[in-house]
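User: I'm curious whether this sequence folds into something compact or stays loose and floppy. Could you predict its structure so I can see for myself?
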Amino acid sequence: MPAHDTVPSHDTLRAYDTVPAYDVVVAGGGHNGLVAAAYLARAGRRVLVLERLPHLGGLAVSARPFPGVDARVSRYSYLVSLLPTKIVRDLGLPVELRRRRFASYTPSGDTGVLVDGADGARTAASFASVTGDDRDFTAWRRFYGLAGHVAQRVAPTLLEPLPDRAALRTAVGDDEAWRTFFERPIGASVDERFRHDTVRGIVLTDALIGTFADPADGSLLANRCLLYHVIGNGTGDWNVPVGGMGAVTAALADAARAAGADLRTGMEVLAIDPSSGEVAFRDEDGAEHAVTAHRVLAALPPAVLSRLLGEPSHDPPEGSQLKVNMVLARLPRLRDPSVRPEEAFGGTFHINEGRDRLSAAYAQAAAGTIPDVPPAEVYCHSLTDPSILGPDLRRSGAHTLTLFGLHMPARLFRSDPARARDEALRATLASFDSVLAEPIEDCLLRAPDGTPCLEVKTPVDLERDAGLPGGHIFHRDLAWPYAEDEAAGRWGVETAHPRLLLCGAGARRGGGVSGIPGHNAARAVLEGR
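Assistant: Here's the prediction. I'll summarize afterward.
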């Protein structure tokens, strides 16, 4: 992170002991907190942001995790889809979100399905090579035509007052689209529309990212996950942030500072009094302080907020993912001679994510065991954005690689985190190897000390390292982007306490790096002037 993300001096902090008043205190300096701070400061509000970690951005950060290796890895969050262009434009953010030509590649035996955004004929031929005819490709175009329709109708509502179900149903308009994405379990719709196991799996993975769910389940949790993966900016495109995810956070922090917001790191919020607007916090040296504000925005996981309010936390969240960051000396060879590695890894590379594999892995994880053949997907950011590599690495042909494993719930790592992490990593790398022409470990770059450039994070690691309850990347189960009860409030960020608003992924709308709850919390504050 930028060098100016520093902790204030004790002389500055002593002034807080008099309990001064701010217009707004934002508890949490993740990307949503920064979005809200920037909007509010630009509107003339006195804003203080308190962040526990020594850097801003939460999990939307870049890092050089391998000593002596000049590669900036988007360590946790890694792609951007839901961040509305309006927020980028409103705040004047100098960020570039670069589109990937290839949407995905899914190995299947010695061939595979390549979705080439610039060559429809090649995509069709690729489907036929795996499925044997054009029926699944025709169904694919129909399905994603419906998804595109939903995206165009739902995305504009995300930065507006929260609609109720009937209003969003009217906005969507199309009966088939509404049933497919909002009413029927997505697993049933996919099984009905597609014949081939591989194609079914490609669709269903977006319903399971960071979500431990059965797509056939009547809870429709997988539907909600899929919805947020296909509606971003009205297109559903997943783009690479040039410079890494830390570039997005740095731009937000700079915008908030330039508008006059006071951003403080190393400040752990200890308690929030929602009636008085008082926020108690501790600095990195252990000294305790308090501030008051007319409004408090909680850019925190709901479970953390409950603790700070002294309220019980219901339904503890449980993350479900394995994150593996790597730097490769070169891209691995493929079993499919018709596709170059630069094409296959230029989008999302699916690993054993067929419908049957997904179901088997879910069943094993639900029974308390690490899946034998873990499904996962891989992204090579440096193919789209070489700037995250130092000049020597670029010339050498090195690349970053990020693997995101599915059906790895936190419960599997609780009793013996180190052993379970090692077991999950071994099984996941073996799964990866099974679809390659050579072991991925043979391609890993080695740091100057000889260690391979590979780090692995489980939900329990995220809970420990980042304070993320249950390691849940969405903070809790995703909600529909409409009001499901009268308590939802006008913007979906309101709480039972009039002075306290949600400003993070616990709000009604948004998931991943979106800035949507930050924008909506700021709008709610400004409306309450």
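Summary: The chain is about 35% helix and 15% strand. The CA atoms of residues 185 and 216 lie 5 Å apart.
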